[in-house]
From TrEMBL:
Chain intervals with Basic and acidic residues compositional bias: 497-506
CDD domains in UniProt: Glyco_tranf_GTA_type (cd00761)
Coiled coil segments of this chain: none
Species this protein is from: Nocardioides soli
Domain Glycosyltransferase 2-like: 6-140
Domain of life of the organism encoding this protein: Bacteria
Segments of this protein annotated with the region Disordered: 495-522
InterPro entries: Glyco_trans_2-like, Glycosyltransf_2, Nucleotide-diphossugar_trans
Protein name per Swiss-Prot or TrEMBL: Glycosyltransferase 2-like domain-containing protein
Lineage: Bacteria, Bacillati, Actinomycetota, Actinomycetes, Propionibacteriales
Length: 522
């Protein structure tokens, strides 16, 4: 039987963790569907076995090589689709059971696109701070799709779109994300958009989760899946998230990015770095290695870098579970030290640590920069390991720049040191600093010493200049005193001259008076 709707699930490096997403499709109230799980490159990590565990409506397709975005899988899915309509679901997102039924109801009214309300969740532990809701608008409003972004997991469209819409675009040739470009192309082709007016999607945005592809996990999805399984709990969850978004003003607040903000291909590169795709294969750890706080965007796990005259650091937050890549490999477990800067106004600490999803024992103690988190764990081969630090609740502090808004911050990362057992055994008297950390700290101290010497030279020069200034002032005071004395002498001379002139004038006056008083000739 020909399906009414074809569901395209683009996937890459998701493996077994895709199962909750596929179960949410299987739980739809509409059953006349096919599911095309399309791997961006050869399937791996148990993906084929996971898809095979579902019924005959689920098929696995695979591109021969990776295309670096959802565009390649979505295009193959559209080509293979047999349904009258095409819907999309991200490989880590979930649908509520009535999602497709509501979308198809809107499409049956003659619209080209139907969009459902979508809860857009930030990282775990920061959902209240970071929840958005999209897809709720007045159906038929032509300006809405030109302004507002809707994740593909929330929409479906007729299979035969106008030719002007075209295929999902190549991300390397764009300034915009591919889903934004696809929606704007549909809007420019005068496609009509409808909203179901109901929330039926929960999106766990990988673009907000640092290293999400390097350490795929279905823990968040399983937690929400359990809530969605019970109708009463499902309604309560949706109402709670929607109320939170309304209170924060984040309903229909997600708009398309402006293309002039980015260079061609810039968004693609940034997303690959954020998700961990661009991190190279791990290097062999020889003895001791160090990596600093970094410069790249790390989603909502870490704020941007900050610095002073001595250190460079970056605060975790708003997520209370920030991740870090460990780009080394070693056949035996290694010592990991996370060096943190302390701030009395931020009493946040690390309460749990995990490496590649497995809890590991850790210790928080004093360190050369304030605090150090010490642990010992194995590193995997083939791809960089992921260290997750679960912190106590972040606190709200002023932004890192003048006039910046307040933000949630946790711990301030200086750097990570990784050491082999042999390297660690070489410094038993100071287990908090290995050779790599000593080199970094030594370079800092050397830089401080050079700065101190430079300041001392500058101070000596200023002191010498001040002494010369004082001498010059003293000389000026002598000149001024001599000039004052000259002025006094001149003033006395002027006074004497004025008195003499007054005396002469008086004598002239008297002579004139005497002459006038003398009798004239008889």
């Amino acid at each position: 039987m020909t399906p009414l709707v074809s569901v395209v699930v683009a996937t890459y490096e998701r493996g077994l963790a895709i199962a909750p997403t596929l179960r949410s499709i299987g739980a739809q109230t509409r059953t006349d569907l096919e599911v095309l799980v399309v791997s961006d490159g050869p399937p791996a990590d148990g993906l084929a076995e996971t898809v095979a565990g579902f019924d005959e409506r689920f098929r696995l397709l695979a591109l021969p090589e990776r295309t670096r975005s959802q565009s390649g899988p979505n295009n193959l899915g559209r080509e293979q689709a047999r349904g009258r309509y095409v819907a999309y679901l991200g490989h880590d997102d979930l649908w509520l059971p009535e999602h497709l039924d509501r979308l198809l109801g809107a499409l049956d009214e003659g619209f080209d696109f139907a969009v459902a309300g979508c809860i857009y969740l930030g990282p775990p532990g920061a959902e209240d701070e970071l929840t958005w809701v999209t897809g709720l608008f007045e159906s038929g409003d032509a300006e809405v799709p030109r302004e507002h972004f809707f994740p593909p997991s929330s929409f479906a469209h007729v299979r035969d779109l106008p030719a002007a819409v075209g295929r999902w675009p190549d991300p390397a040739a764009l300034r915009l994300p591919v889903d934004t470009a696809f929606l704007l192309a549909a809007a420019d082709a005068d496609c009509r958009f409808a909203s179901t007016g109901e929330v039926s999607v929960v999106k766990f945005a990988s673009a907000l989760r640092y290293l999400s592809y390097l350490a795929p996990s279905d823990a968040e999805q399983l937690r929400v899946e359990r809530l969605l399984a019970d109708p009463a709990a499902r309604t309560a969850y949706v109402d709670e998230r929607l109320a939170e978004a309304r209170a924060r003003g984040t309903v229909m607040s997600t708009r398309h990015a402006a293309p002039q903000q980015f260079e061609v291909g810039e968004r693609l590169a940034a997303n690959e770095q954020l998700r961990g795709i661009a991190i190279p294969a791990p290097a062999a750890l020889v003895d001791s290695a160090w990596i600093g706080p970094g410069e790249e965007w790390r989603g909502f796990d870490w704020h941007g870098p900050e610095w002073d005259d001595v250190d460079r650091w970056r605060w975790s937050g708003p997520s209370p579970r920030p991740r870090l890549a460990l780009p080394w490999t070693h056949p035996e477990p290694v010592h990991v030290r996370v060096h943190l800067r302390t701030d009395p106004a931020v009493p946040v600490t690390v309460v749990e640590a995990r490496v590649d999803g497995e809890p590991v024992d850790h210790r928080v103690g004093a360190g050369p920069w304030g605090r150090v988190v010490e642990l010992r764990a194995p590193l995997r081969a083939g791809r960089a390991s992921v260290l997750e630090l679960e912190t106590s609740p972040p606190v709200r502090r002023p932004g890192g720049a003048p006039d910046a808004p307040e933000r949630l911050v946790g711990v301030a990362l200086i750097g990570i040191e990784v050491e082999t057992d042999a390297a660690a055994a070489a410094h038993p008297d100071d287990p908090t600093m290995g050779r790599a950390a000593l080199a970094v700290r030594g370079a800092q101290l050397e830089r401080l010493e050079l700065e101190r010497r430079s300041q001392a030279v500058h101070l000596a020069r200023l002191t010498e200049e001040l002494a010369l200034t004082h001498q010059h002032a003293a000389n000026l005071e002598g000149v001024v005193a001599a000039q004052a004395r000259s002025i006094t002498t001149l003033q006395r001379q002027v006074a004497q001259a004025e008195r003499k002139e007054a005396d002469r004038a008086e004598r002239r006056r008297r002579r004139a008076e005497a002459k006038d008083a003398a009798p004239g000739p008889a």
